[in-house]
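Illustration: TetR/AcrR family transcriptional regulator.
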Amino acid sequence: MSNTKENILEQSLKLFNERGLSNVSLRTVADELNISVGNLQYHFKKREHIIEALYFQLVKKIDTSIVKSSTLGGMLQSFFNITQSTLLSFFEYRFFLLDFTLIIRQHEKIRAHYKELIKVREQQFFNSLTLLIENGFLREEILPSEYKNLFIRLQILSDFWASSASIHSEKISKNMVLEYSQVINQSIFPYLTEKGRIQYLKKIES
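Result:
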């Protein structure tokens, strides 16, 4: 990727986060970079192409963090690591979450990819649950589709925590990542076995 293209993406991300998607045009980005709109359009013909490029940057970043986080610490620790690293990535690209519904509606390419991505994330989630159950940290399902519904709840929290934070605070801060990580992490506590709860409590006390 050329330096100009990287600069455009970097500046666009900064502006989208600071001003909101609806307040940033190609002209806004070009002015901030002191380049012409024509020069910018040589690299990204439409604003939607910038948004798509940033989306795929975010997906790649989260994919990398999931792999890295899964190899650090024990099984429950990996769950905590993945939650926090994912929310940190979302914070870095927070405009996506704040305008999530709008972006999904307006960008067919992102919508199609996101639908497939959720299937992958669900499989990763169930692979992790299987390991936790096999190693005695998580109980078996009691209710029909209990863990399927847990995944859905976690997905909702993950996609919309930033919107919630923006309602209750004037500005979303990095410190909020820790707060909402705890909200998500505690969602799994009712499903833990005694062994799992002991390890969980040791983790939060350390």
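Reading the tokens back as a structure: The chain is about 75% helix and 0% strand.
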